[in-house]
TrEMBL record:
Protein known as: S1 motif domain-containing protein
Domain of life: Bacteria
Domain S1 motif, chain residue ranges per copy: 154-214
Gene3D superfamilies according to UniProt: Nucleic acid-binding proteins (2.40.50.140), Winged helix-like DNA-binding domain superfamily/Winged helix DNA-binding domain (1.10.10.10)
Lineage: Bacteria, Bacillati, Bacillota, Bacilli, Bacillales
Family annotation (InterPro entries): CvfB_fam (IPR014464), CvfB_S1_2nd (IPR048588), CvfB_S1_3rd (IPR048587), CvfB_S1_st (IPR039566), CvfB_WH (IPR040764), NA-bd_OB-fold (IPR012340), S1_domain (IPR003029), WH-like_DNA-bd_sf (IPR036388)
GO molecular function terms attached to this record: nucleic acid binding
Organism of provenance: Salinibacillus xinjiangensis
Family: Belongs to the CvfB family.
Amino acid sequence: MITQAGTIQMLTVKRVIDTGYVLTDGQDEFLLHNREANEDLEVDQEVEVFLYPDKKGQVVATTTIPSVRLDQYDWAEVMEVVPNLGVFVDIGIHKEILVSIDDLPLYTKVWPAAGDFLYVALDTDKKGRLLAKPATESLFTDDDFLNAPEDLKNATVSGRVYRTSKEGSVILTEEGYRGFIHSSERKTEPRLGQWVTGRVIDVKPDGSINISLRPLKQDSISEDAQAILTYIEENDGMMPFGDKSDPEDIKGTFQISKAAFKRALGSLMKEGKVEQRDGNTYLK
């Protein structure tokens, strides 16, 4: 019998040792450490276990059956980020499983952070090592999502990012809806696995939703104004921007449009906090 790491097996206790139990499938033997057993076992007793390679590469057993398995996806918490290698996730067993750099975004700033969750399944590489692989968009079908009601528009929703790109971010909301956040509807690109909260701006015919992470226009004025004011205060009371500045320069510095910049700047001038001179803006 060929036994593969990452699978569930029904094995038999061959003998009891000081550190635990030696299990067998009739051909191979596997150690079930005392800490990995959820009850006391006896010789010849059958036990259902999950097999995985330990730090030395030896396949060992645990009676903890994880919900993340080969070809079975579930959410797993990111425990550690290792540059140039990937991230390690907790699937519920004593060993954390690597999500390889090859399966993470090229842009490392949107790599998941510790505490984020990835929707993963187990896989093995050519050397038989156990890896966790994030779900790709092609793995999801319409049956995996609930159809959002039309009256959801303008409602606040929260969810987890399971795909991210320059075009936008895709999330699974806590209700089970598929949500898309276009790049124009976010100031910064969310991390893969990040929990985000936004506003529904459209309900599509297929039941998916479009989401904005930007505040409503009337709310964003004060937020943008505060960002501009903070920038000026941190730059000795002056910024080389005014209402005639280049839109791309504004976007690159404040991550807002020129129209939003002018609205925020206008509110600051109206409140008497700043003034413009020679194309620059100064604290009053």
